[in-house]
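User: Quick sanity check before I run a bigger batch. Here is a single chain. Can you write out its predicted 3D structure?
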Amino acid sequence: MSVLMREPKRPDPAPVLATLGLLAAWAVHDLEEVATMARWSRSRVPVLRERHPRVPDRLWQRLEGVDGRRFATAVGVMGLVVAAASADGLRTGGRSGFYQGALTGFGLHGLVHLGQAAATRGYTPGVVTSPLVVVPFTLWARGRLRRAGVLRPARARHAVTGLALAGAATAAAHAVSRRILRGASAR
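Assistant: Done. Predicted structure follows.
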């Protein structure tokens, strides 16, 4: 009687690529933002302020005052959040709610960049990598997670939560950035 020997089934690399890929896609996207934000805010905000006089002055002042060092520090802080989400996704084979929420927020924030560019009728930091990296990666990763059987069903509340968490994490990253740089300048 012969015994058929089967090779052990290899684990699906999709969750690994989808989880660690979030950090890689985020890094590519945020490099664009870091490289362009300070110059964009100095050159475009005055034009936008004139075009949209009903927008509160404090918003324009905040955008005009974007300091490249502070923005890059905030991006670094946000990188820690994205790295933690990616690591949690890797640890759980893509099942982590934290990871899936971060993935959803990342993809939706790419759509926000496209909307911002349309609303301002021009380039905005992050708009180049949004359709080339952010949105395609998010759709690919979600598809891989779905095929692996670990993607949670998409619900409108998950989209709202993902965007809200992305906004809150961004605001927190900027607050931490201000504190870090304030502490560094006090020395």
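The radius of gyration is 20 Å.

User: Great, the batch can go ahead then.
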